[in-house]
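We give this protein:

***
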Amino acid sequence: MVSPSRLEQRGNPILPPFMIADRGKSTGSRCSPERTTKDSMIGLIGPPDSIERCLRAARSLGVEDQLVPREYHELDEVPDLTAELDLACPVVLFTGTVPYTVTRGLREWKGHHEYIAYTAGDLYHALIQILVDTNGEAPPLSVDKVGIPDVEAMFDDIPFPAPVFVEAPTDDQIDVDAIAASHLANLESGRASAAVTCLSAVHERLSASGAPSRRIQHSMPTLKTAISRAILLSQVSVTESTQVAVGAIVLGDELDEQTRSQSRTILSSFAEKLRGSFVPASNDRYFVYTTRGALEDAADRASLGQTSPFDELSALKGKVRVSFGIGSSVAAAEELALRGIPYAASSGHPLIYGNDGSISMIGLESSGVTPDRALPQIGIGPLSFRRLSRALHQLDVSRVTANDLANAYGVTARSARRILRRLNSIGVAIDVDETSGGMRGRPKTIYRIDLDRLLELSRPNSAGDSSKA
Protein backbone atom coordinates (compact mmCIF):
# COMPACT_ATOMS: atom_id res chain seq x y z
CA MET A 1 0.00 0.00 0.00
CA VAL A 2 1.85 3.06 -1.21
CA SER A 3 -0.91 5.66 -1.03
CA PRO A 4 -1.14 6.35 2.73
CA SER A 5 2.58 6.93 3.12
CA ARG A 6 2.63 9.16 0.04
CA LEU A 7 -0.19 11.23 1.45
CA GLU A 8 1.44 11.49 4.87
CA GLN A 9 4.65 12.71 3.20
CA ARG A 10 2.57 15.44 1.59
CA GLY A 11 1.43 16.52 5.05
CA ASN A 12 -1.91 14.73 5.18
CA PRO A 13 -2.54 13.12 8.58
CA ILE A 14 -4.46 9.85 8.85
CA LEU A 15 -7.51 11.90 9.80
CA PRO A 16 -7.26 15.54 8.67
CA PRO A 17 -8.33 18.23 11.13
CA PHE A 18 -12.05 18.92 11.25
CA MET A 19 -13.86 22.02 12.25
CA ILE A 20 -15.87 21.90 15.44
CA ALA A 21 -17.05 25.51 15.50
CA ASP A 22 -19.51 27.43 13.36
CA ARG A 23 -18.24 28.22 9.90
CA GLY A 24 -19.88 31.61 10.15
CA LYS A 25 -20.95 32.91 6.79
CA SER A 26 -23.10 30.59 4.71
CA THR A 27 -22.00 30.02 1.16
CA GLY A 28 -25.51 29.13 0.08
CA SER A 29 -24.28 25.77 -1.18
CA ARG A 30 -26.32 22.69 -0.43
CA CYS A 31 -23.19 20.94 0.77
CA SER A 32 -21.76 23.51 3.15
CA PRO A 33 -22.66 22.38 6.68
CA GLU A 34 -22.52 24.81 9.55
CA ARG A 35 -20.45 22.41 11.60
CA THR A 36 -18.17 19.51 10.82
CA THR A 37 -17.46 16.63 13.17
CA LYS A 38 -15.54 13.41 12.81
CA ASP A 39 -18.87 11.70 12.19
CA SER A 40 -19.25 13.60 8.91
CA MET A 41 -15.81 12.81 7.46
CA ILE A 42 -15.85 11.43 3.92
CA GLY A 43 -13.33 8.78 2.88
CA LEU A 44 -12.21 9.32 -0.72
CA ILE A 45 -10.58 6.57 -2.80
CA GLY A 46 -9.33 6.92 -6.37
CA PRO A 47 -6.30 7.19 -8.65
CA PRO A 48 -4.06 10.24 -8.11
CA ASP A 49 -5.49 12.39 -10.91
CA SER A 50 -9.08 11.79 -9.78
CA ILE A 51 -8.20 12.49 -6.14
CA GLU A 52 -6.56 15.76 -7.16
CA ARG A 53 -9.67 16.88 -9.07
CA CYS A 54 -11.95 15.91 -6.18
CA LEU A 55 -9.87 17.93 -3.76
CA ARG A 56 -10.05 20.94 -6.09
CA ALA A 57 -13.84 20.61 -6.21
CA ALA A 58 -14.05 20.26 -2.42
CA ARG A 59 -11.77 23.25 -1.97
CA SER A 60 -14.07 25.41 -4.07
CA LEU A 61 -16.98 24.34 -1.85
CA GLY A 62 -15.05 25.04 1.34
CA VAL A 63 -15.24 21.42 2.55
CA GLU A 64 -11.77 20.05 1.75
CA ASP A 65 -11.11 19.42 5.46
CA GLN A 66 -13.95 16.89 5.49
CA LEU A 67 -12.30 14.59 2.94
CA VAL A 68 -9.87 11.83 3.88
CA PRO A 69 -8.15 11.05 0.53
CA ARG A 70 -6.41 7.80 -0.33
CA GLU A 71 -4.74 7.25 -3.71
CA TYR A 72 -4.24 3.91 -5.40
CA HIS A 73 -2.11 2.97 -8.40
CA GLU A 74 -3.30 -0.60 -8.84
CA LEU A 75 -6.76 -1.97 -8.14
CA ASP A 76 -5.47 -4.60 -5.73
CA GLU A 77 -4.62 -1.76 -3.31
CA VAL A 78 -8.28 -0.72 -3.05
CA PRO A 79 -9.57 -3.32 -0.52
CA ASP A 80 -6.96 -2.37 2.11
CA LEU A 81 -7.58 1.35 1.61
CA THR A 82 -11.31 0.75 1.92
CA ALA A 83 -10.86 -1.23 5.13
CA GLU A 84 -8.83 1.65 6.61
CA LEU A 85 -11.35 4.36 5.74
CA ASP A 86 -14.41 2.26 6.55
CA LEU A 87 -13.31 2.20 10.19
CA ALA A 88 -12.93 5.98 10.39
CA CYS A 89 -15.59 7.45 8.11
CA PRO A 90 -19.37 6.94 7.95
CA VAL A 91 -19.23 7.41 4.16
CA VAL A 92 -16.57 6.21 1.71
CA LEU A 93 -16.73 7.82 -1.74
CA PHE A 94 -15.06 6.11 -4.70
CA THR A 95 -14.12 8.17 -7.74
CA GLY A 96 -15.67 5.62 -10.11
CA THR A 97 -17.62 2.41 -10.36
CA VAL A 98 -14.52 0.23 -10.77
CA PRO A 99 -12.92 0.67 -7.30
CA TYR A 100 -16.42 0.50 -5.80
CA THR A 101 -17.08 -2.79 -7.60
CA VAL A 102 -13.77 -4.25 -6.44
CA THR A 103 -14.79 -3.95 -2.77
CA ARG A 104 -18.47 -4.84 -3.08
CA GLY A 105 -19.30 -8.04 -1.23
CA LEU A 106 -15.81 -8.56 0.21
CA ARG A 107 -17.06 -8.24 3.77
CA GLU A 108 -19.73 -6.58 5.88
CA TRP A 109 -18.63 -2.95 5.71
CA LYS A 110 -19.51 -0.67 8.59
CA GLY A 111 -20.04 2.54 6.65
CA HIS A 112 -22.01 3.61 3.59
CA HIS A 113 -20.18 3.30 0.27
CA GLU A 114 -20.94 5.54 -2.73
CA TYR A 115 -19.30 6.08 -6.11
CA ILE A 116 -19.17 9.02 -8.52
CA ALA A 117 -20.86 7.97 -11.73
CA TYR A 118 -19.58 9.20 -15.07
CA THR A 119 -22.11 11.30 -16.95
CA ALA A 120 -22.77 12.10 -20.59
CA GLY A 121 -21.26 15.51 -19.94
CA ASP A 122 -17.99 13.92 -18.82
CA LEU A 123 -17.85 11.84 -22.02
CA TYR A 124 -18.70 14.80 -24.23
CA HIS A 125 -15.96 16.88 -22.60
CA ALA A 126 -13.41 14.18 -23.52
CA LEU A 127 -14.72 14.06 -27.09
CA ILE A 128 -14.39 17.84 -27.42
CA GLN A 129 -10.73 17.54 -26.38
CA ILE A 130 -10.26 14.89 -29.07
CA LEU A 131 -11.77 17.23 -31.68
CA VAL A 132 -9.38 19.98 -30.56
CA ASP A 133 -6.43 17.58 -30.90
CA THR A 134 -7.54 16.49 -34.41
CA ASN A 135 -8.44 19.97 -35.73
CA GLY A 136 -12.14 19.16 -35.80
CA GLU A 137 -11.88 15.74 -37.45
CA ALA A 138 -13.93 13.10 -35.62
CA PRO A 139 -11.80 9.92 -35.68
CA PRO A 140 -13.08 6.36 -35.18
CA LEU A 141 -12.71 5.49 -31.51
CA SER A 142 -12.22 2.44 -29.32
CA VAL A 143 -14.36 3.04 -26.22
CA ASP A 144 -14.59 0.78 -23.18
CA LYS A 145 -17.95 0.37 -21.45
CA VAL A 146 -16.53 0.06 -17.96
CA GLY A 147 -17.93 2.68 -15.60
CA ILE A 148 -20.06 4.53 -18.17
CA PRO A 149 -23.71 3.45 -18.17
CA ASP A 150 -25.53 3.62 -21.52
CA VAL A 151 -22.38 4.73 -23.33
CA GLU A 152 -23.62 3.26 -26.62
CA ALA A 153 -26.78 5.38 -26.52
CA MET A 154 -24.69 8.49 -25.87
CA PHE A 155 -22.94 8.08 -29.24
CA ASP A 156 -26.28 7.96 -31.06
CA ASP A 157 -26.67 11.72 -30.56
CA ILE A 158 -23.23 12.98 -31.60
CA PRO A 159 -21.57 13.30 -35.05
CA PHE A 160 -18.80 10.76 -34.45
CA PRO A 161 -18.24 7.58 -36.44
CA ALA A 162 -19.72 4.54 -34.73
CA PRO A 163 -17.06 3.52 -32.20
CA VAL A 164 -15.72 0.06 -31.47
CA PHE A 165 -16.75 -0.86 -27.93
CA VAL A 166 -14.66 -2.85 -25.50
CA GLU A 167 -17.10 -4.88 -23.46
CA ALA A 168 -17.30 -4.55 -19.69
CA PRO A 169 -16.78 -7.76 -17.68
CA THR A 170 -19.95 -9.65 -16.78
CA ASP A 171 -18.77 -10.17 -13.20
CA ASP A 172 -17.01 -8.00 -10.64
CA GLN A 173 -13.52 -8.90 -11.89
CA ILE A 174 -11.91 -5.93 -13.65
CA ASP A 175 -8.84 -6.93 -15.70
CA VAL A 176 -7.20 -3.68 -16.77
CA ASP A 177 -4.54 -5.52 -18.79
CA ALA A 178 -7.22 -7.31 -20.83
CA ILE A 179 -9.11 -4.04 -21.41
CA ALA A 180 -5.92 -2.27 -22.51
CA ALA A 181 -5.09 -5.20 -24.81
CA SER A 182 -8.53 -4.98 -26.44
CA HIS A 183 -7.99 -1.27 -27.13
CA LEU A 184 -4.56 -1.96 -28.61
CA ALA A 185 -6.00 -4.67 -30.86
CA ASN A 186 -8.65 -2.23 -32.14
CA LEU A 187 -5.99 0.41 -32.80
CA GLU A 188 -3.55 -1.98 -34.49
CA SER A 189 -6.27 -3.39 -36.75
CA GLY A 190 -7.19 0.10 -37.96
CA ARG A 191 -10.73 -0.15 -36.64
CA ALA A 192 -10.00 2.80 -34.35
CA SER A 193 -7.59 5.73 -34.33
CA ALA A 194 -7.74 6.54 -30.61
CA ALA A 195 -8.88 4.93 -27.37
CA VAL A 196 -11.26 6.45 -24.82
CA THR A 197 -11.43 5.13 -21.26
CA CYS A 198 -12.44 6.28 -17.79
CA LEU A 199 -9.90 3.93 -16.16
CA SER A 200 -6.64 5.62 -15.23
CA ALA A 201 -4.76 2.30 -15.19
CA VAL A 202 -5.89 1.50 -18.75
CA HIS A 203 -4.99 5.02 -19.90
CA GLU A 204 -1.52 4.69 -18.33
CA ARG A 205 -0.90 1.34 -20.04
CA LEU A 206 -2.01 2.68 -23.42
CA SER A 207 0.07 5.84 -23.05
CA ALA A 208 3.13 3.79 -22.02
CA SER A 209 2.80 1.76 -25.22
CA GLY A 210 2.57 4.95 -27.30
CA ALA A 211 -1.09 4.43 -28.21
CA PRO A 212 -3.28 7.54 -28.58
CA SER A 213 -5.58 7.57 -25.57
CA ARG A 214 -7.94 10.03 -23.92
CA ARG A 215 -8.94 9.64 -20.27
CA ILE A 216 -12.53 10.57 -19.38
CA GLN A 217 -12.53 12.61 -16.20
CA HIS A 218 -15.35 13.92 -14.06
CA SER A 219 -16.34 17.52 -14.68
CA MET A 220 -16.23 19.96 -11.77
CA PRO A 221 -20.07 20.17 -11.57
CA THR A 222 -20.25 16.35 -11.39
CA LEU A 223 -17.66 16.26 -8.59
CA LYS A 224 -19.27 19.07 -6.62
CA THR A 225 -22.66 17.38 -6.77
CA ALA A 226 -21.20 14.04 -5.66
CA ILE A 227 -19.28 15.58 -2.76
CA SER A 228 -22.33 17.57 -1.68
CA ARG A 229 -24.45 14.43 -1.62
CA ALA A 230 -21.77 12.49 0.25
CA ILE A 231 -21.63 15.13 2.96
CA LEU A 232 -25.41 15.16 3.31
CA LEU A 233 -25.35 11.38 3.48
CA SER A 234 -22.63 11.38 6.12
CA GLN A 235 -24.74 13.65 8.29
CA VAL A 236 -27.60 11.15 8.31
CA SER A 237 -25.37 8.07 8.32
CA VAL A 238 -24.35 8.51 11.95
CA THR A 239 -27.53 6.73 13.02
CA GLU A 240 -27.87 2.95 13.07
CA SER A 241 -29.86 2.86 9.83
CA THR A 242 -27.65 4.40 7.15
CA GLN A 243 -30.01 4.17 4.23
CA VAL A 244 -31.02 7.66 3.26
CA ALA A 245 -34.56 8.98 2.87
CA VAL A 246 -35.21 12.17 0.91
CA GLY A 247 -38.44 14.12 0.91
CA ALA A 248 -39.34 16.37 -2.03
CA ILE A 249 -41.71 19.16 -0.99
CA VAL A 250 -43.44 21.36 -3.56
CA LEU A 251 -45.62 24.30 -2.60
CA GLY A 252 -48.92 24.52 -4.44
CA ASP A 253 -49.82 27.49 -6.65
CA GLU A 254 -52.95 28.01 -4.56
CA LEU A 255 -50.94 29.10 -1.51
CA ASP A 256 -51.70 32.68 -0.51
CA GLU A 257 -48.83 34.95 0.40
CA GLN A 258 -49.41 34.70 4.14
CA THR A 259 -49.42 30.89 4.11
CA ARG A 260 -46.43 30.83 1.79
CA SER A 261 -44.47 33.04 4.19
CA GLN A 262 -45.30 30.64 7.04
CA SER A 263 -44.56 27.48 5.06
CA ARG A 264 -40.80 27.63 5.46
CA THR A 265 -41.09 27.77 9.25
CA ILE A 266 -43.57 24.88 9.24
CA LEU A 267 -41.45 22.75 6.91
CA SER A 268 -38.28 23.52 8.86
CA SER A 269 -39.98 22.32 12.05
CA PHE A 270 -41.18 19.22 10.18
CA ALA A 271 -37.62 18.38 9.09
CA GLU A 272 -36.27 18.95 12.59
CA LYS A 273 -38.82 16.55 14.10
CA LEU A 274 -37.83 14.00 11.46
CA ARG A 275 -34.26 14.38 12.79
CA GLY A 276 -33.24 15.59 9.36
CA SER A 277 -32.04 18.68 7.49
CA PHE A 278 -34.12 21.12 5.48
CA VAL A 279 -32.68 22.46 2.21
CA PRO A 280 -34.42 25.01 -0.05
CA ALA A 281 -33.96 24.15 -3.73
CA SER A 282 -36.00 27.02 -5.19
CA ASN A 283 -38.79 29.40 -4.15
CA ASP A 284 -41.40 26.66 -4.18
CA ARG A 285 -39.39 23.43 -3.86
CA TYR A 286 -37.56 22.02 -0.85
CA PHE A 287 -35.76 18.82 0.16
CA VAL A 288 -35.70 17.10 3.52
CA TYR A 289 -32.83 14.67 4.17
CA THR A 290 -33.25 12.13 6.93
CA THR A 291 -32.85 8.40 7.58
CA ARG A 292 -35.10 5.56 6.62
CA GLY A 293 -35.54 4.67 10.28
CA ALA A 294 -36.70 8.17 11.25
CA LEU A 295 -39.11 8.34 8.29
CA GLU A 296 -40.65 4.94 8.88
CA ASP A 297 -41.02 5.59 12.60
CA ALA A 298 -42.88 8.83 11.83
CA ALA A 299 -45.01 7.13 9.15
CA ASP A 300 -45.88 4.25 11.48
CA ARG A 301 -46.94 6.70 14.18
CA ALA A 302 -49.14 8.54 11.70
CA SER A 303 -50.71 5.24 10.56
CA LEU A 304 -51.43 4.29 14.18
CA GLY A 305 -53.04 7.68 14.88
CA GLN A 306 -50.24 8.68 17.25
CA THR A 307 -48.45 12.02 17.46
CA SER A 308 -46.10 12.22 14.49
CA PRO A 309 -43.86 14.78 12.74
CA PHE A 310 -46.39 14.66 9.90
CA ASP A 311 -48.80 16.52 12.20
CA GLU A 312 -46.73 19.60 11.37
CA LEU A 313 -48.11 19.50 7.82
CA SER A 314 -51.75 19.75 8.88
CA ALA A 315 -51.73 23.53 8.45
CA LEU A 316 -50.68 23.07 4.82
CA LYS A 317 -53.00 20.18 3.93
CA GLY A 318 -53.95 20.33 0.28
CA LYS A 319 -51.51 23.17 -0.33
CA VAL A 320 -48.20 21.30 -0.37
CA ARG A 321 -47.09 18.11 -2.12
CA VAL A 322 -44.83 15.82 -0.06
CA SER A 323 -43.21 12.70 -1.47
CA PHE A 324 -40.41 10.65 0.09
CA GLY A 325 -38.02 8.31 -1.65
CA ILE A 326 -35.77 5.77 0.03
CA GLY A 327 -32.67 4.57 -1.74
CA SER A 328 -29.15 3.25 -1.37
CA SER A 329 -27.83 6.68 -2.36
CA VAL A 330 -28.95 10.28 -2.08
CA ALA A 331 -29.36 10.52 -5.85
CA ALA A 332 -31.58 7.44 -5.99
CA ALA A 333 -33.73 8.64 -3.09
CA GLU A 334 -34.11 12.11 -4.63
CA GLU A 335 -35.20 10.61 -7.94
CA LEU A 336 -37.85 8.42 -6.28
CA ALA A 337 -39.11 11.34 -4.20
CA LEU A 338 -39.58 13.48 -7.31
CA ARG A 339 -41.35 10.64 -9.11
CA GLY A 340 -43.92 10.54 -6.34
CA ILE A 341 -44.79 14.25 -6.48
CA PRO A 342 -47.58 13.88 -9.13
CA TYR A 343 -49.22 11.19 -6.99
CA ALA A 344 -48.94 13.35 -3.88
CA ALA A 345 -50.56 16.19 -5.81
CA SER A 346 -53.50 14.07 -6.94
CA SER A 347 -54.06 12.36 -3.58
CA GLY A 348 -53.50 15.34 -1.29
CA HIS A 349 -51.52 13.10 1.08
CA PRO A 350 -47.81 12.77 1.82
CA LEU A 351 -46.46 9.46 0.55
CA ILE A 352 -43.45 7.18 0.21
CA TYR A 353 -42.61 6.19 -3.37
CA GLY A 354 -40.86 2.83 -3.40
CA ASN A 355 -38.14 1.75 -5.82
CA ASP A 356 -40.54 -0.97 -7.04
CA GLY A 357 -43.15 1.64 -7.95
CA SER A 358 -45.26 0.99 -4.84
CA ILE A 359 -46.92 3.95 -3.16
CA SER A 360 -47.58 4.15 0.57
CA MET A 361 -49.90 6.97 1.60
CA ILE A 362 -48.72 8.19 4.99
CA GLY A 363 -51.50 8.20 7.57
CA LEU A 364 -53.74 5.93 5.46
CA GLU A 365 -54.16 2.19 5.31
CA SER A 366 -52.72 1.10 1.96
CA SER A 367 -51.57 -1.93 0.01
CA GLY A 368 -53.53 -4.29 2.24
CA VAL A 369 -51.51 -3.52 5.35
CA THR A 370 -53.56 -2.57 8.39
CA PRO A 371 -52.09 -0.52 11.25
CA ASP A 372 -52.20 -3.64 13.46
CA ARG A 373 -50.14 -5.71 11.02
CA ALA A 374 -46.82 -5.29 12.76
CA LEU A 375 -44.36 -6.88 15.17
CA PRO A 376 -44.75 -4.79 18.32
CA GLN A 377 -42.76 -7.43 20.23
CA ILE A 378 -39.57 -6.13 18.61
CA GLY A 379 -40.69 -2.62 17.69
CA ILE A 380 -41.50 -3.10 14.01
CA GLY A 381 -44.41 -1.00 12.74
CA PRO A 382 -46.64 -1.70 9.73
CA LEU A 383 -44.51 -0.05 7.02
CA SER A 384 -41.38 -1.72 8.31
CA PHE A 385 -43.17 -5.06 8.57
CA ARG A 386 -44.35 -4.93 4.97
CA ARG A 387 -40.86 -4.13 3.71
CA LEU A 388 -39.29 -6.81 5.90
CA SER A 389 -41.79 -9.42 4.74
CA ARG A 390 -41.18 -8.52 1.08
CA ALA A 391 -37.41 -8.75 1.59
CA LEU A 392 -37.57 -12.14 3.26
CA HIS A 393 -39.73 -13.54 0.48
CA GLN A 394 -36.93 -12.67 -1.97
CA LEU A 395 -34.44 -14.84 -0.08
CA ASP A 396 -33.74 -18.51 0.48
CA VAL A 397 -35.14 -18.46 4.02
CA SER A 398 -33.33 -21.69 4.91
CA ARG A 399 -29.98 -19.86 4.87
CA VAL A 400 -30.06 -16.09 5.47
CA THR A 401 -27.06 -13.99 6.49
CA ALA A 402 -26.96 -10.37 7.59
CA ASN A 403 -25.56 -9.41 4.18
CA ASP A 404 -28.42 -11.20 2.42
CA LEU A 405 -31.01 -9.37 4.50
CA ALA A 406 -29.18 -6.05 4.19
CA ASN A 407 -29.22 -6.24 0.38
CA ALA A 408 -32.86 -7.33 0.15
CA TYR A 409 -34.17 -5.06 2.92
CA GLY A 410 -32.15 -2.00 1.93
CA VAL A 411 -30.28 -1.38 5.19
CA THR A 412 -26.72 -1.71 6.41
CA ALA A 413 -25.33 -5.07 7.49
CA ARG A 414 -25.17 -3.73 11.05
CA SER A 415 -28.89 -2.96 11.04
CA ALA A 416 -29.62 -6.33 9.44
CA ARG A 417 -27.70 -8.13 12.21
CA ARG A 418 -29.73 -6.24 14.80
CA ILE A 419 -32.99 -7.23 13.09
CA LEU A 420 -31.95 -10.88 12.87
CA ARG A 421 -31.03 -10.92 16.56
CA ARG A 422 -34.46 -9.52 17.41
CA LEU A 423 -36.17 -12.05 15.17
CA ASN A 424 -34.09 -14.74 16.86
CA SER A 425 -35.34 -13.57 20.27
CA ILE A 426 -38.97 -14.23 19.27
CA GLY A 427 -38.33 -17.52 17.52
CA VAL A 428 -38.60 -16.28 13.92
CA ALA A 429 -34.89 -16.56 13.05
CA ILE A 430 -33.03 -19.69 14.13
CA ASP A 431 -29.23 -19.71 13.85
CA VAL A 432 -28.22 -22.87 12.01
CA ASP A 433 -24.61 -22.32 10.99
CA GLU A 434 -21.63 -19.99 11.04
CA THR A 435 -19.07 -19.35 8.33
CA SER A 436 -16.14 -17.04 7.71
CA GLY A 437 -16.70 -17.18 3.95
CA GLY A 438 -12.93 -17.31 3.45
CA MET A 439 -12.68 -13.56 4.11
CA ARG A 440 -11.22 -11.49 6.89
CA GLY A 441 -13.67 -9.99 9.36
CA ARG A 442 -16.32 -11.35 11.67
CA PRO A 443 -17.78 -14.82 11.04
CA LYS A 444 -21.22 -14.77 9.44
CA THR A 445 -24.12 -16.35 11.28
CA ILE A 446 -26.57 -18.17 9.03
CA TYR A 447 -30.23 -18.16 10.04
CA ARG A 448 -33.29 -20.12 9.03
CA ILE A 449 -36.37 -17.87 8.90
CA ASP A 450 -39.74 -19.30 9.97
CA LEU A 451 -42.12 -17.29 7.77
CA ASP A 452 -45.18 -19.02 9.27
CA ARG A 453 -44.09 -17.91 12.72
CA LEU A 454 -43.50 -14.39 11.40
CA LEU A 455 -47.03 -14.16 9.99
CA GLU A 456 -48.52 -15.71 13.13
CA LEU A 457 -46.89 -13.10 15.37
CA SER A 458 -47.93 -10.26 13.06
CA ARG A 459 -51.62 -11.14 12.99
CA PRO A 460 -53.92 -8.52 14.55
CA ASN A 461 -54.62 -9.35 18.19
CA SER A 462 -51.89 -12.01 18.21
CA ALA A 463 -50.84 -12.91 21.70
CA GLY A 464 -47.21 -12.64 20.55
CA ASP A 465 -45.89 -15.31 22.90
CA SER A 466 -42.22 -15.04 22.09
CA SER A 467 -41.41 -18.16 24.04
CA LYS A 468 -42.94 -20.32 21.36
CA ALA A 469 -40.20 -21.76 19.17
About this structure: Residues 239-361 form a domain with the Alpha-Beta Plaits fold (CATH 3.30.70.270). The chain has four domains: 3-116, 120-215, 239-361, 376-458. The CA atoms of residues 159 and 329 lie 34 Å apart. DSSP finds 16 helices and 16 strands in the chain.
